[in-house]
Amino acid sequence: MKVTNVVNENESLESIMTSTCVVTVTYGERSHYVEELIPIVQAYGVSRVIVVDNASAPKSQTILQEIENKSAGAVTLLSLSENTGSAGGYKAGLEYFLRCSGCEYVWLLDDDNRPTSETFETLSQCYLDLISLYPQSHLATVSLREAFKPLAEGQPVKYAFPRRSSFQGFHVLDILRKFRKIIFGPVRNSISETSRFIEIPYSYYGGLFFHSSVLENIGMPDERFFVYGDDLEFSHRITRSNGKIFLVPSSVINDFDHSWNATTYGRNPFSRKLNSSSDFHVYYGSRNGTYFHSFFWKDSSLLYKTNKYIFLTILFIFSLALGRVRQFSNILLAVKEGEKGLLGRRDKIFTENGS
User: Fold this and answer.
1) Are residues 23 and 83 in the same domain?
2) Which of 85, 109, 141, 292 could bridge to 226 as Cys pair (CB 3.0-4.6 Å)?
3) Does residue 4 form part of some domain?
4) 24 and 147, same domain (yes or no)
5) Could you read off the pLDDT of 268-304 as tens digits, one per residue?
């Protein structure tokens, strides 16, 4: 599995940076994010920027078209006739990258990602160091974002991701760990253990960097997800095929927008799901998360079922207490469809009876 690169290190770093294409997806009225992002990545010397317009608002479409027109060929705008979600958007961008960009490497960024002046050079240098150990078709690096910061602060990887056979992030064995955390504080690695690379099982799109041969190995994002979880399943194919994903803590990306999950309902996953104002978010998040964990993150059917029934029982009790039984029924439907692999976009999420 070892690959030897007999090249000058500085020339190789420059080659990687100048043969990289950035792919980003935007929608709604977010053209201002794209306007701010493009000059930042162009300052790194990347060859191309592909902007996928996921059926933005008319004003944003006009601004995005102007950006492309003024770029002298450095920016390519792919305008989609409908919003295909993150899965369809990144798939369209990656297909164009392979077909027409003329670049070897791709760096995926959300439109609201804000790299620092050293983010990409640090990421590229770490990637260069790693390709002496792993084949490019089975390797990806990813920049540090808010969700991964606990890892950079020393949190063990096994605690940063859901346990195998968990359900909606819930696992009975975590109950004991949470009690231990309350009494003794969080478990941390030593600084030396989190210095340069941290191997992780899957990643988000934003900040993910890899060679074009990875796509030949794992394929494109699964459009059936539409939104939520598609990035986790897509990147997990790298590690499922015996590849490696390494988080680079020194390559930092800041996020301007915040996840819908960061609600005012606190950390309680039960009230957070039930009190969400968006059936759209809850449905796709619950369905796609169930699909991913039941098909690809389960190593014990018994443990999975145990976690599932405990979680749903507690969720039902909360729904009675909060008067959110309809929301519980909707989540139950999403879970059933996820376990059956019934993915795809729903034109209408729910009717009044939850079906």
Assistant:
1) yes
2) 85
3) no
4) yes
5) 778 888 988 788 999 999 999 999 999 999 999 999 9
